[in-house]
Amino acid sequence: MSLTMPANDTIYDRLPEQFRGGMRRYIEDRIQPGSTLRAILAHDLFDAVALADAGAIAELPRIVRWIYQEAPHGSHGSYAVVDAWLSAGREPR
């Protein structure tokens, strides 16, 4: 378990179910999220809406609120920030 988030499943329970696994893998394991979640994490409203299905669009306020309140600093904000977050979790060769 990573030290970036507490080992508390209830934190992820506040997310829509379809985003829980992807968000957990992104935050804790620094694994590339799907295209919609990546756009949301990058604060790219246009791509987030264009890539999301109707259910995800309806849940955007809840997802954004969760990221704002729960996601670690430095894990969201732009595509460069998302890429840096992902890169920070890779072992140097």
Word description of this protein:
The chain is mainly alpha-helical and 93 residues long. It is built from six helices and no strands. It has helices at residues 9-13, 17-29, 35-41, 45-51, 54-70, 79-88. Helix 3 (35-41) packs antiparallel against helix 4 (45-51). The protein is globular and about 35 Å long. The model has no long low-confidence stretch (mean pLDDT 90).
Briefly characterize the structure.
The chain is mainly alpha-helical and 93 residues long.
Topology, element by element:
Elements: H1 9-13, H2 17-29, H3 35-41, H4 45-51, H5 54-70, H6 79-88
Helix pairs in contact: 3-4
Helix content: 55-70%
Shape: globular
State the secondary-structure class: mainly alpha
Total helices: the number is 6
Distance between the termini: 22 Å
Keywords:
6 helices; mainly alpha; single chain; globular; 93 residues
